Amino acid sequence: LDLETDLRHALERNEFEVYYQPKVSCETGKIVGAEALCRWNNPKRGMVSPGIFVPIAEEIGLIEPLGEWVLRTACKQAKDWQKKGLNPIKIAVNISARQFNQKNLALWLSNILEEINFNGQLLELELTESMLLENPSISVLKLRGLKTLGVKIAIDDFGTGYSSLSYLQQFPFDILKIDRCFVKNIDQNVKNAEITKALISLAHHLNLVVVAEGVETKPELSFLKTYNCDEIQGFLFSRPLPASEFERLATGEL
Ligand code: G
Ligand code: G
Ligand code: NA
Ligand code: MN
């Protein structure tokens, strides 16, 4: 059987799992958020990378139900953590182009938030620049609609696309995620250092929260602290973890 067929059955067969990668405050060193990252554990194939199955899911129209499942699962998990007395954790969910393009996006989200009784203020949606630029004026309206629900909008993989800086001014973002290609070796690579410093400064002047992705070393972290990055995410602190392990990490048991 081919991958696509297996993927089509994966949701009903409960083969997906949501992993959580901590986002840590540079100021306090505490976990303040988590990016929800989907995992596919197929009995026959083992763990399949989202780098492989997300594009296929997008192509065959499975990304809408899958994305909704990830969103619901992550929000319910965050509520469960709150009930258990953990500090409030902002949940970040990746939204694919096809999901973003669905009609009545804000209504869809508002129904889900209401149904599971989840505070929109604790939800971040991670979007990439390319999906917004297909139709910028419609994207602006969609983002405004989402923001009426209190959710935060993050621009993911910032700096890797083809667009100009003008969309930073056009779109109502709350969070800028500096792509990991710029973070790599910032303590040694002068160009990456300058780009990252400039991005942090630019983002702060636009009142955006800055998250650095792909932080793998202590020197990278101290550089980011020195230049007032707000939050970091990366293997240095933790890889994406199953919910139970994330919980142990957040409660200091791990
Ligand atoms: O989890 P990992 O770091 O291997 O993710 C690889 C890619 O898959 C990333 O680009 C990530 O954004 C994407 N991805 C992971 N989970 C989801 C998801 O639930 N929805 C969407 N749209 N993309 C996801
Ligand atoms: O595209 P997006 O930014 O959503 O990608 C998230 C991906 O980044 C996931 O596949 C996650 O496993 C990966 N990732 C998270 N932290 C690190 C890191 O420190 N180094 C590297 N190389 N990848 C990371
Ligand atoms: Na992301
Ligand atoms: Mn990213």
Automatic annotation (TrEMBL):
It comes from the Bacteria. Residues 1-254 form the EAL domain. This is Response regulator receiver modulated diguanylate cyclase/phosphodiesterase. The lineage of its organism: Bacteria, Bacillati, Cyanobacteriota, Cyanophyceae, Oscillatoriophycideae.
